Amino acid sequence: MEWSTAVWTGGVAVAAAVYWFVWVMGAAEVKGKSAVDLKMGSISDDKVKDKYTQYWSFFRRPKETATNASSAEKVPAFVDTFYNLVTDIYEWGWGQSFHFSPSVPGRSHREATRLHEERVADLITARPGHRILDVGCGVGGPMRAIAAHSGSQVVGITINEYQVARARAHNKKAGLDSKCEVVCGNFLKMPFENASFDGAYSIEATCHAPHLEDVYAEVFRVLKPGGLYVSYEWVTTPLYRAENPEHVETIQGIERGDALPGLRAEDDIASIAKSVGFEVVQEKDLALPPAGPWWTRLKMGRIAYWRNHLLVCVLTALRIAPKGVVEVHEMLYETARHLTNGGETGIFTPMHMILCRKPVKASEEEN
């Protein structure tokens, strides 16, 4: 009797531990995904490992993808692959807004993220009646925050079909599907008419473009004259030294693990914006003091990492998650280490803000 009781009690304890470990600890911050729901976007389960291998091979030398014309043409397809591989893991571990934000004393990460997004709406003076473009919208976390904050109609574009489906589902669940529209497309060749948006923004998205001037030119084209565009750019700061091997390894680690065809220097952003016709209204690194460290969320303890690692290993072994998830998780953890190093040394920022205006006279030049 005592033996059976012990077995029964042990079974209940194990079941409770599994429930807590997988469904409670495995849930996304904003309850978008749980660990048992992890998929690799639109990639079939039997192709995940192959796609991961192809991705890693392509981005092993990031700078070459931007300088080599044939490689640059392939970047959008590999960025699409990247987001198939990481979207569910991002939602599971991070939430619905795939970007960083400065930490704010007394505020949760979620609240700090919302404030960072609402600043975008304020910078471009978005308001009811405006049609605003989200360049690289992901699963639409910022889109929903900005639509709710400003009352604007927000149209997002992402190259990844799986993200389109996720964003639409989230929009509907949030009751914002009438305010938020999602389009699948390449932001280097956007399917929108000239001068069809009152404002535009991109949050840590244009870093995927081989040549920044190409995406800025597209944003310039679809903006109405006088319209404002703000972008939060991933860049190296003036503290970066190309002759420092540790600096180089950190930056290349960020590039390899985030599908980036070479990070740009902070000092180059304004000149690129001006080269396509924009007026630069304001430029600022939002990561500088008094802003709190943006990388605090990445400083995951070893226990938390091994918990997540064990979880994805178990789910893969049980065939709940597809083969290749473990490798993708390891890649993202390693990338988080490089991002943290970049933040702590000050050689990298993911939130170099540039606010631009399309000149009113541009309407005369276009006619």
Summarize the structure.
The chain is α/β, with parallel strands linked by helices.
Description:
- The chain is α/β, with parallel strands linked by helices and 367 residues long.
- 48% of the residues lie in helices and 15% in strands.
- The chain has 13 helices and 8 strands.
- It has helices at 2-24, 48-58, 62-67, 69-93, 109-123, 141-150, 161-173, 212-222, 245-257, 269-275, 302-317, 325-345, 362-366, and strands at 131-135, 153-158, 180-184, 197-203, 223-236, 264-265, 279-285, 348-357.
- Strands 1, 2, 3, 4, 5, 6, 7 and 8 form an 8-stranded mixed β-sheet that branches.
- Strand 5 (223-236), helix 9 and strand 6 form a beta-alpha-beta unit.
- Helix 5 (109-123) crosses helix 6 (141-150) and helix 9 crosses helix 12 (325-345).
- It is globular.
- The termini are far apart.
Set out the fold topology.
Elements: H1 2-24, H2 48-58, H3 62-67, H4 69-93, H5 109-123, E1 131-135, H6 141-150, E2 153-158, H7 161-173, E3 180-184, E4 197-203, H8 212-222, E5 223-236, H9 245-257, E6 264-265, H10 269-275, E7 279-285, H11 302-317, H12 325-345, E8 348-357, H13 362-366
Parallel strand pairs: 1-2, 1-4, 2-3, 4-5, 5-6
Antiparallel strand pairs: 5-8, 7-8
